Structure formats: structure tokens, C-alpha cells
Amino acid sequence: MKVIVLGAGESGVGTAVLAKAKGYEVFVSDFGMISDKYKAILNEFDIRWEEGKHTESEILSGNIVVKSPGIPDKVAIIQKILANDIDVISEIEFAYTFNTEPSVAITGSNGKTTTTMLTYHLLSKGGLNVGIGGNIGESYAKQVAVNPEKCYVLELSSFQLDGIRKYRPHIAVITNISPDHLDRYDYKYENYINAKFRITMNQTKDDYLIYDYDDVEIQRWLTNNKTAAKKVPFSISKKLEYGAYLEGQNIVVAMDKETVVLPISELGIEGKHNVKNAMAATAVAQLKRIRKQSIRESLSDFQGAEHRLEKVMKVENVQYINDSKATNVNATFFALESMKTPTVWIVGGVDKGNDYDELMPLVREKVKSIVCLGVDNSKIKAAYESVVDTLIEVQSMADAVKMAQRLAESGDTVLLSPACASFDLFKNYEDRGHQFKAEVNNL
Asked: What is the chain's Cα-based Rg?
């Protein structure tokens, strides 16, 4: 059996290592250049590879193709592979068959990284043998090659879910759904929603689907479609007989005759959206039989994900917050909603078809000044120029931070929450966040 791996990043190289360990013939092909770090790993395991091209004859000689989630199905080589009746799957599908312990899978348009990290934190502090992977950290496949018996908590994007066939998580979580990546789904929102719900397609009555009861799109899908899994809702607006809900200033998680009560004030992370993330993670922890006291302690000492409402530092009594991972309007909505002081907002980048009207009430209420950081800021200017006192355009992170410092007064917050992709001025959202933190540290 020959496995072809397309894309030699973290996911692809991890898949190649696992496939080699399981006795497959392996060939890795990347249309771009492969980093020295990954070349070294491929060479160490004696795995053949190519870069800067896709050799068609080699690729079409494979039995299975595992592709990087970043490669769209529309590209010519994928179309050729499919025309030759060769199955194209994701790393998740390939690695799953070698993972002896059922996994926990988490998806959603926003909150999935925080929920994945928090769930892993709760389970590992609770004494379980767990790993973390998927769209976060080390490759799931590479970890399975070394530790196949761990329960992995996996953050899964819609792209990764597109490539599953039989993958079945014991516990699945959908944090929320809002429009994102529509360019990969023929600009049809329903295609994107259906991709997210692939997380539950192979679940049985012995499995669990944890989901946001308040999310209109999730409710609509569950009304019109079936899942065999036992449904575990969470809500901040309705008291539920089964699931997680708010009662006063407490999170209540009531499941299978077990109830956990957690004061919101004890959460280590702030904001309404993080109350929901905590509900989802706590529901997983309860299903995995983690002790109540351990859950409570773990929720209070969890620090949150980098680039997600990350408190960088205070300078002259102005709090600087890095929310670079907010690459869509919905994520920025959560960020602005959690602001408690007048805010200087750094926004902009590559617009993904954003509707900025959704943020208008929050901008009017919370934002005093806007710093536009992007090559094309015309939509942001059109939306907010008449709403805030000051709106300034800049072309570098150094200028953005300096300008924000000038506009902020003692007691204010400077928030980087771009609502856009980063590729016009930065390598990715991490690069954007790291540059922001470096410039704040230079103040």
C-alpha cells in the first residue's frame, strides 16, 4: 500500500511519519518549498519527498492520498486524483484508525481553540492520559505514532472535517456557527454548516454531541437533520433540564444525576463567550468522570489561548490586549462585547466579505478611536468614520501601536481584534499577534 501525502507542513509530515511506522510506502509532495525543520524529519525517517512541484505519475500511483487541510479540492492535482478514483482523506481520518482510545473533537467558527485547550487542561489535571492536536500544537498523526493509547482532544476545522470518512469521536463539541471560509464552500453558507456537522456523522447512541443551544444555525440544523449521538446542550439564556446553563452568577452543569455548580467569578478567562467555552469543556469533563473539585480548580487557573483576548501588559494604566486570532466579525464581536473600559480598536487586514454593521452597536458603545491596519481599509472607513471620534490608517504594526498609545488615556484599553485575515501585511495571525506584543513591549 502506498500513501501519498500532499503538503509538508506539521500535518503532512506527521502523517508521513505515522504511515512509515505502520509499514506503508510513503511519498510526500509539496508544491511550495519545504522548511528545513520538516526536511530533517522526513530524511530521518527515510521518507521520499519532493518540493516545488507535484509529479503526477508518482502521485497517481498511490492507494490513498492524505492532503493538507489548506489545499482546496478545486486545485488541478486533486481533481486528477479524484478522477482516478483514489480516495483523498485528511490526517484526522488516517490517524484515527491507529488511535486505540476514542477522541474528543471540537469544532466551531469561534472559540474552538480556547475550548480545546481548556478541555485538555481539565482532563489532564483530572488525571487522564490525554493529548492535544488537530488544528493546534503537534500533529495528531505524529503523536499517535508514539502514543496510540492516549485520548486526544482535537481542534478540528471544517477543512479537516471535509476529509473524514469513518472518523468517530466519542464526544463531539460544536461551539457555534457563523459565516467563515465561504470562498471554500462556493459562497454557500449551508455547505459550510454541513461541513461543521460532519463531526457527528459517524457517532452512535453511545456517543455525545455537546452544542450551543442559543445558536440559531445549530438549532436549525438539528431540527432538519438527525444525529444518533446523545445531545448535550449548553445555554446562557435558558435553564435546561439536561446540559449546562446559567443560574444567577453560576454555571450549572446537570447531567446523568450529577450536578456541578461553578461561580463565573472563579473562571480564569473573561467574557460571555468564555462562559460558553467553560460550559462545553466542563460538560466533556463530567462525561469523562473528572472530580468536581478538580474541574473547579482547573477552570480557575486556566490562562487562555495565545492571541485570543490575551492581556499583554499595562502601559501608563492602559491595558493592551492581543486578539489577533479574531479573523472574522463574529470573533471580534465577542472581544468588543467583553471590553469594560473605553477602547482604542486596531482593526483590518484581508476582508473575508465582512458585514461590519453587526458590530455597530458595540462600536458606538465601547470604541472611542479606530486604528485601521491593512492595505485596503475602505469598508471599515465607510462603516465607522462617522461613528467614532478618530479613525486613522497605518501600514505597519509599529505605527499601529504607537498611534493607539497616543489615542489612549489612562484607564482605557487598546484592543487588537482585526476581524480580518492577516495575509496582506503578515505571514499569519500568529505573526501579527507576536508583532503586536513586541511593539507593546517596546513602548
From this structure: 22
| 231 carries a ligand binding annotation | no
* pLDDT at residue 304 in the model: 78
114 is in an annotated binding site: yes
pLDDT per position as a tens digit, 260-312: 999 999 898 888 889 999 999 999 999 999 999 999 999 999 987 789 899 99
Angle between helices 272-287 and 292-301 (to 10 degrees): 150
Percent of the chain topping pLDDT 90: 86
Distance CA 75, CA 72 (A): 6
> Exposed, middle or buried, 172 (CB in 10 Å: 0-12/13-18/19+)?
buried
C-alpha 299/C-alpha 110 separation (Å) is: 19
Report which DSSP code applies to 186: T
Domains defined along the chain, listed by start: 2-89 (3.40.50.720), 93-301 (3.40.1190.10), 310-441 (3.90.190.20)
Q: Are 22 and 14 in contact (CB under 8 A)?
A: no
Q: Is 14 annotated as a binding residue?
A: no
Instruction: Yes or no: say if 356 and 329 are a contact pair by the CB < 8 Å rule.
Output: yes
- pTM: predicted TM-score of the whole model, two decimal places: 0.81
Write the DSSP string, 135-149.
SSSS-HHHHHHH-TT
Q: How confident is the model at residue 382 (pLDDT cuts 50, 70, 90)?
A: very high
As beta bridge partners, residue 322 has 310, 416
- Taking the CA atoms of 9, 11, 15 and 21 in sequence, report the sign of the dihedral they define: positive
Pairing relationship of beta strands 2-6 and 250-255 according to DSSP bridges: unpaired
Question: What residues have CB less than 8 Å from 342, skipping those under 6 apart?
Answer: 366, 367, 368, 409, 411, 412, 413
Q: Nearest CA to 267 among 242, 293, 304, 306?
A: 304
The answer to whether the annotation marks 113 as part of a ligand binding site is: yes
Residue 110 is labelled as binding a ligand:
yes
Cα torsion 144, 146, 152, 156: sign: negative
109 is in an annotated binding site: yes
Residue given cell 486526544 in the structure block: 152
